[in-house]
Amino acid sequence: MPAHLAAPPVFALAIFLALAPSALAAEKPANGVIAYAAKRADTRAVYTRAPDGSALRVAPAQGKTAYPAFSPGGKRLAFTQYGPYGAQVWVTYLDGVGLRPLTAGPTDTMPEWSPDGTSVAFVRGAPGARDIYTTLADGTDVRRLTYSRRDDEAPTWASTGRLAFVRHGATVDRIYTVTATGGIATPLLRDGVNQGSPAWSPTGRTLVFAKGEPGRRDLYVVRSDGSGERRLTRVRGDETEPTWSPDGKRIAFTYRRAGKRAIYVIKPRGKAVRRLPSRSFRVRRLTSTRSGAVSPTWQPIGLDPVVAAAGDIACDPADPEFNGGEGVPGQCRQRLTSDLLLRMDLSSILVVGDEQYENGELSAFMASFDRSWGRLKPLIRPVPGNHEYAVPGAVGYFDYFNGLGAQNGPAGDRTRGYYSFEVGTWHIVGLNSECEQVGGCDEGSPQLAWLRADLAAHPAQCTLAFLHRPRFTSGRFSDGQTDVLPLYQALYDANADLILAGHEHFYERFAPQDPVGNADPQRGIRQLTVGMGGKGRTGFVAPAPNSEIRDNRTTGVAAVTLREGSYDWRLVQAPSGRSADIGSGACH
After folding, report:
1. What is the residue range of 394's domain?
2. Whole-angstrom distance between the N-terminal and C-terminal Cα of the chain?
3. Which end of the chain is more exposed for a tag (fewer CB within 10 A), N or C?
4. Strands, E, within 385-520: which ranges?
5. Which pLDDT score, from 0 to 100, does residue 191 have?
6. Is the same domain home to 219 and 99?
7. Are residues 260 and 359 part of one domain?
């Protein structure tokens, strides 16, 4: 075993081998809004609305857009946008955060997310010569999956990892399947009737698709092996572009007849539907025919929030290893770690200090941090580190996150740098471990008094705190960060569960312990040191008591799923996205 990585307990190794990296606990999403493309003035836009037809919204995008697709976490939307670079696939959070082109164009369309949300399949090529491609959700690693003399289009990605798509033949269009790494594509059904618009069910066990000649296409479902075909609709006109609800109990689809289009929702159980009323027990019309709505996609909601965390991130632009922001192996890899964030559905990004080296000047923030992690700045909740305070009052840090001269903002009050907020059912506390800059952290200090009052006012079952300096470490500061001991004690007294820290440029996981370092599996707080955000790596001095995992080779981020009454953590390696450490804990 490599010396940099401490041996995991047998049970932890078993978890790592047995579970998919995207989650430790199975989650069943609920049904959110439905997105679709429709008319807007003299162009087309992507809209969202609730399945009952209420809450109509225009999705954040620019110009003419089409083919929306919700990510598995339900927070991001991929879509086709038409502009000066032709047709490109774009991605955004629903509130507009992270709006950016994912592909270069000019003939890219029909995006579809992978089951873990880290990749997107799409169609590339001129009509008559289109194939299926994939790319990571940060826009890197574009790969071609199919090679055909015919058109391949309409990819759909099963939870099992297999893709289905439509291949247009000389006489008939068929649904084919292929692995996510490419290879030989095989037809799913071999009858002589045109097939189109495939969509996997949430379980990946069945597929809904359109079948028939244009103008007379109906919806069918079939098992993943091509057996058990069953008809869902028997209606005059075209029923195409089906999409499953996240709970698997409904299907939304596009209906076309006499040049008019609308989106309907049906329950798939029962005999084939013979008419499409505006509303009945099995059928509901979602849009009017005036809108010309097409291409529905259904948002998953109700999933537990995920936060990403790291610190010690962005090199000074004057650093010899900066390399235009790309860094070199092991140094200045802020761009690489930020790419991981672009692949995730995140509720928040917790940055545990030393965001910008060497002294946190605003000009350095703009030239380095902003070009990497700043791509998702609205999701970031930071705390300051010692390098931020190399500028008196951490002026550059607060100006960057709060706004030039602003007293308050995402980084808290600039005279304090500590604050709290909620994510899901969790109470999150950001602390300023540069104690001498804010009147101390000991008894009688403003921060300690605030922390105790804040914890008393928010008696959540689950509490997470994050700060820069770790109380416990096996690294350079192994003599102990005693300044933060009173903060740890206050958190322990309030039954907090998890602390994230940085300062040391590595990853270290501790077993639950009390503030003075005694193992305490019942009430103890687990500390994760996550200082592997890109700046560089530092070594270990000696294993600290209760240290379970130590890794100073991985550059990446920690992903923490905040469940009700528990949490999962995952150390995500850059650039591979693989899990270097994984586990779960229960709240007190």
Report:
1. 304-586
2. 34
3. N
4. 419-423, 426-430, 462-466, 498-501, 507-510
5. 87
6. yes
7. no
Nearest to 34 by CA among 226, 310, 292, 246: 246
Say how far apart CA 452 and CA 284 lie, in whole Å: 52
Sheet with 306-310, edge to edge strand ranges? 380-383, 348-352, 306-310, 556-563, 566-573, 579-586
| Burial of 416 (C-beta count, 10 Å sphere; 0-12/13-18/19+) | middle
Rg of the chain in Å (alpha carbons): 26
> What are 206's two structure tokens?
């069945």
One domain for residues 264 and 339: no
- We report the CATH number of the domain holding residue 112 as 2.120.10.30
407 shares a domain with 388: yes
Report in angstroms the alpha-carbon separations of 525 from 214, 340, 491: 62, 27, 8
Alpha-carbon dihedral sign for residues 369, 374, 375, 376: positive
Query: What local confidence, expressed as pLDDT, does residue 15 receive?
Result: 30
Q: How far is CA 244 from CA 209, 265, 345, 358, in A?
A: 11, 10, 20, 50
Q: Collapse the DSSP code of 341 into the 3-class scheme (helix H, G, I; strand E, B; otherwise coil) and give the result.
A: helix
- Does 312 lie in the same domain as 294? no
Of 301, 325, 352, which residue constitutes the final position of a domain? 301
- Considering only CA atoms, which of 503, 509, 549 is closest in space to residue 525? 509
Same domain, 276 and 363: no
d(CA 448, CA 485): 11
Residue 23 in any domain: the answer is no
**What CATH number is associated with residue 400?**
3.60.21.10
Asked whether residue 478 carries a pLDDT value surpassing 80, the answer given is no
Is the separation of the CB atoms in 223 and 206 below 8 Å? Answer: yes
Give the separation between CA 20 and CA 240, rounded to whole angstroms: 33
What is the C-alpha to C-alpha distance for residues 268 and 205, in angstroms, rounded to an integer?
A: 15
Weakest mean pLDDT among 20-29, 485-494, 547-556, 571-580: 20-29
Q: Which of 200, 204, 198, 202 is nearest to 217 (CA)?
A: 198
The residue type of 435 is C
122-158 residues labelled b (16+ CB within 10 A) or e (exposed): bbbbeeeebbbbbbbbbbeeeeebbebebbbbbbbbb
Could you tell me how far CA 519 lies from the centroid of its own chain? 34
**Three-state DSSP state, 196:** strand
Residues 290 and 331 in one domain: no
Q: Which residue has the higher pLDDT, 61 or 257?
A: 257
